[in-house]
Amino acid sequence: MSLKDYSAIKALQISEFLNNEKGFYTVSNVVKVDEKNRNAFIKDVEKSHEALAIDRQQMNENFPSLLKRDFNTLINYSL
Question: Which string of DSSP letters, residue by residue, matches the chain?
């Protein structure tokens, strides 16, 4: 089946995972990996493919501290 055929199946919601803008394609996918293999998997994906692996768990853990740091910096600037 072609991508156009898959896109016609609304239950798959292909548009949520595939985007094309001006010839630049992005494909999103969810991969669940054991905690102990996470770093090795990310390094392998980025080394072996022209891809960027985004670790959502790590982002969620780091986001509050980054937000606090940025907020504190903003307060210091305003003083």
Answer: --HHHHHT-GGG-GGGTEEEETTEEEE-------GGGHHHHHHHHHHHSS-----HHHHHHHHHHHHHHHHHHHHHHH-
Cα R_g (the chain), whole angstroms = 19
pTM over 0.70: no
Residue pair 53/41 in contact (Cβ under 8 Å)? The answer is: yes
Instruction: Please give the Cα distance from 9 to 24 (Å, whole number).
Output: 23
Q: How far is CA 11 from the centre of its chain?
A: 22
Residue 12 contacts residue 6 (beta carbons within 8 Å) = yes
The tens digit of pLDDT for each residue in 21-67 reads 888 878 888 888 898 998 898 889 888 888 888 887 877 888 888 78
